[in-house]
Write a structure and sequence with these properties.
Elements: E1 9-14, E2 23-25, E3 28-30, H1 32-44, E4 47-52, H2 55-63, E5 69-70, H3 78-81, E6 84-86, E7 94-100, E8 116-120, H4 124-136, E9 139-143, H5 146-154, E10 160-164, H6 165-173, E11 178-180, E12 185-186, E13 193-195, H7 200-215, H8 218-227
Parallel strand pairs: 1-4, 1-5, 8-9, 8-10
Antiparallel strand pairs: 2-3, 6-13, 7-10, 7-11, 7-12
Helix pairs in contact: 1-7
Bound molecules: glutamine.
């Protein structure tokens, strides 16, 4: 344990609806990220107060030191490493495109010409969609959270959504009315972040706690709890 974190309480920002990483069940914040940060805190002797802010809002709160850390299925990217310090990676991810279940027109990026797609403001999905929009001739609309994006696609206001594939897969598996139609794009792994140069003891404790949860099997138990497919 890191003596510097013992007994400390840290304020942690997260996304609102990003199942299975963070979402509400019976009003309670739950998910892989929530279990991870709470179990790491317990393992390392500190406490956390979780703030469900939304993804972009959480990153802004971190930049302005309104929160001590962010865990939000947040990808470790080169651009973000300029302004944040990241933990060791804890989950591999990447971006994929999904459309409404009954959509037979859009089967790949080439079908997006003249269309509007949706992505989360400030996310890797948005960055990826913007990186190919000129080549394929579509418009990217930014929304704040995944649930609103999926509703936008189902309502027909946009033809496709770009989001992280584990999150899309989890929702699709729960019959959320979407289907994925493209290959997964290689993406960055998720990490816990602190503001650059701030709370180094918290970052160190996160890494130590994560390693211990991997060693004692708790990390795998958390993943299995949320990712195991029903038989
Ligand atoms: N992994 C993506 C990113 O970091 C999306 C995270 C999220 O939507 N919570 O940009």
């Amino acid at each position: 344990p890191h003596a510097a974190v013992t007994g400390e309480n840290y304020v942690i920002g997260t996304d609102t609806t990003f199942a299975p990483f963070e979402y509400r069940e019976d009003g309670e914040l739950t998910g892989i990220d929530m279990d991870l940060i709470r179990d790491i805190a317990a393992n390392q002797g500190f406490t956390v107060e979780i703030k469900s802010l939304g993804f972009d809002a959480a990153l802004q709160a971190l930049q302005s030191n309104q929160v001590d850390g962010v865990i939000a299925g947040m990808s470790i990217t080169d651009e973000r490493e300029l302004i944040f310090d990241f933990s060791d990676p804890y989950f591999d991810s990447g971006v994929q495109m999904a459309v409404a279940e009954d959509n037979t027109e859009i089967t790949g990026y080439a079908d997006l010409v003249g269309e509007t797609v949706v992505a989360k403001r400030g996310s890797e999905g948005e960055t990826f969609a913007n990186s190919i929009k000129d080549e394929y001739g579509f418009t990217v609309k930014a929304l704040a959270d995944s649930a609103t994006m999926y509703d936008d696609v189902k309502a027909g206001n946009s033809v496709a959504v770009f989001d992280d594939y584990p999150v899309l897969a989890y929702g699709i598996n729960q019959n959320n009315g979407l289907k994925s139609v493209t290959e997964k794009e290689q993406g960055s792994s998720y990490g816990f972040a602190v503001n650059k140069g701030q709370n180094p003891e918290l970052l160190a404790a996160f890494n130590t706690g994560l390693a211990e949860l991997k060693d004692n099997g708790e990390y795998q138990t958390i993943l299995d709890t949320y990712l195991e497919q029903p038989a």
